[in-house]
Design brief:
By secondary structure, the chain is an alpha/beta fold. About 25% of the residues lie in helices and about 15% in strands. Bound molecules: 1-deoxynojirimycin. 1-deoxynojirimycin binds next to loops.
Length: about 575
């Protein structure tokens, strides 16, 4: 693989997040960064059409700076017919008009960098849109042509080719194959789509595809982005011969046996995929010739895999920098399980020299303020509809605050999902006629889908669309409960979830916890998660999360710096986490 010569970043990020930021020693920024996911459709609408956009994000950057995060990751804003909310890309070098213009993207990057915020964008390499120029060309070209070789076209089976090439099923429901009509009007070949039929899978065994993505990386690196979150990073290469697979292909499985097994199918995690990221790493590294960690550009793998060890293969020294820790997200609110997943994550990451990451919510899963309000032992649902058992919102928020307070003390890098700092729940009663997730339609409603966690953010309680848009419009309706949770209602209010997040992020930075070392504390009840983090700055932080019914006494000689909930008679009640130093 050839790698081009270096260019340097057009903008540099000021000291706050650089490699030698106070409290973090000389650790590279991405080893401890808190990265905030912006879902652009739902963050802030700058032009009043009811859909969030890039100018909207730019207008809210001071809020993110104030919140205290180090970077933002923005879900796709490329030109797209929006069959999967932008994860179906028609042109990787263009901004969709619904989100703005390329000038808006440049402005966002420049403004974020001025504020000391790094910007990671989302790259979708497994599939393009069926409206991408390459796929259109493939449809117009004959079977076996170079244009078809960029995708996974195969002849059908059965006497007249009217059956799909194999039995693979789409992650979003239905078959993973669609038959095309050839240019002469006859029924023709089939193409593979692990997701929607409007998301044809690319053929990553074709060097032209490899080269094209190197070029796309360079396009955005030249504009100054600080990295890429890589969509379904484990799916690019499929097993030779495309063998049948009896299981459903699951992307974001609930961590149960069935989905864990499904994630081992011939469409996931093939050995050759790692070679692709070695090539990408070389492209990124070529943008940091001096090797100053402050100028590192990073790759983060979205790879739902059955074990931490398997996930960590994506962050070996010459591959990606980070991988999402979905094992943490999928862990039940049980002390023993939490201890186990933290230990395993830290050990497996250390074994390959990578930082671990932590995450509790994103645009594909029910928000943790809702999830944790379901009865213990409930399998993580793929969306909650009005006629499903409803979560307990008070318990959910209480546990979510405790879970985040635990998470933000942990060494490594942490990901936040927009709105979780307001304690937002999912919309669990969206009318079906407003749903947009292709998974809802392809499963004929059997899967509720992910719209409930994608509802626009409430900024101002008394404004139209709660301040999301200037008009009374938002692409998904907001539930009434979003009014009292609006940012303006929480700003400066002691004990609000927003102020809790701000305090946690400030203390995390001051004490250098992200670059710290974790030591488990013995002698507590099994239902207490107790550890100390020896940070890169300040005094060690003691963290106690009480998941049990018995109130927990505070240790002598330490001061409570922050608590996820009110202490009762000086004791830590159930579902509450405290930081002490
Ligand atoms: C993972 C993304 O997070 C999800 O939203 C999308 O639907 C699939 N990949 C397909 O691109």
């Amino acid at each position: 693989m050839t790698v081009p010569s270096t260019t340097t970043s057009p903008t540099t990020v000021p000291a706050r997040t650089s490699g030698d930021a106070p409290g973090h020693g000389s650790t590279a920024w991405w080893r401890h960064a808190v990265i905030y996911q912006v879902y652009p459709r739902s963050f802030a609408d700058g032009d009043g059409d009811g859909v969030g956009d890039l100018p909207g994000i730019t207008s809210r950057l001071p809020y993110l700076r104030e919140l205290g995060v180090d970077a933002l990751w923005i879900s796709p804003f490329y030109l797209s017919p929006m069959a999967d909310a932008g994860y179906d890309v028609a042109d990787y070098r263009a901004v969709d008009p619904v989100f703005g213009t390329m000038a808006d993207a440049d402005e966002l990057l420049a403004r974020a960098h001025e504020l000391g915020l790094r910007v990671i964008i989302d790259l979708v390499p497994n599939h393009t849109s069926d409206e991408h120029a390459w796929f259109r060309e493939a449809l117009d070209a004959p079977a076996g042509s170079p244009a078809r070789e960029r995708y996974v076209f195969r002849d059908g089976t059965g006497p007249d080719g009217s059956l799909p090439p194999n039995n693979w099923r789409s992650v979003f429901g239905g078959a993973a194959w669609t038959r095309v009509t050839e240019p002469d009007g006859t029924p023709g070949q089939w193409y593979l789509h692990l997701f929607d039929s409007k998301q044809p899978d690319l053929n990553w065994r074709n060097p032209e595809v490899v080269e094209e993505f190197h070029d796309i990386l360079r396009f955005w690196l030249d504009r100054g982005v600080d990295g890429f979150r890589v969509d379904v990073a484990h799916s690019l290469v499929k097993a030779e011969g495309l063998p049948d697979w009896e299981e459903k292909a699951v992307m974001a499985g609930g961590g149960d046996d069935e989905s864990a097994h499904a994630n081992l199918g011939p469409m996931w995690d093939q050995e050759e995929v790692h070679e692709i990221y070695r090539g990408w790493r070389q492209v990124l590294d070529s943008y940091n010739e001096t090797g100053d960690p402050a100028h590192d550009r990073i790759l983060c793998a979205e790879a739902w895999l059955p074990s931490v060890a398997r996930t960590m293969r994506f962050v070996r020294p010459d591959e990606m920098h980070q991988a999402f820790n979905f094992h943490f997200l999928d862990t039940a609110w049980q002390a023993e399980d939490l201890r186990d997943v933290v230990t395993e994550s830290l050990e497996e990451a250390a074994a390959v020299g990578a930082p671990t990451t932590w995450v509790l919510s994103n645009h594909d899963v029910v928000r943790h303020a809702t999830r944790l309000g379901l009865p213990p032992g409930t399998r993580r649902p793929n969306g909650i509809a009005a006629d499903d058992p409803q979560p307990n919102p008070v318990l959910g928020l209480r546990r979510a605050r405790a879970a985040t307070t635990l998470m933000l003390a942990l060494p490594g890098s942490a990901y936040l999902y927009n709105g979780e700092e307001l304690g937002l729940p999912d919309h669990t009663a969206l009318p079906h006629d407003v749903r947009q997730d292709p998974a809802f339609f392809r499963t004929r409603g059997e899967e509720t889908g992910r719209d409930g966690c994608r509802v626009p953010i409430p900024w101002v309680a008394g404004a139209p669309a709660y301040g999301f848009s200037e008009e009374e419009r938002s692409w998904l309706p907001q539930p009434l409960v979003y009014g009292p949770l609006a940012a303006d209602r929480q700003e400066g209010v002691a004990g609000s979830t927003l102020e809790l997040y701000r305090t946690l992020l400030r203390l995390r930075r001051e004490h250098g916890l992200g670059a710290g070392r974790l030591e488990w504390l013995e002698g507590h009840a099994p239902s207490v998660v107790a550890f100390r983090v020896h940070g890169a700055g300040g005094r060690p932080m003691t963290v106690l999360a009480n998941l049990g019914a018995d109130p927990l006494a505070l240790p002598d000689g330490l001061e409570v710096l922050v608590a996820s909930g009110r202490l009762e008679d000086g004791l830590v009640p159930q579902d509450t986490t405290v930081w002490l130093a």
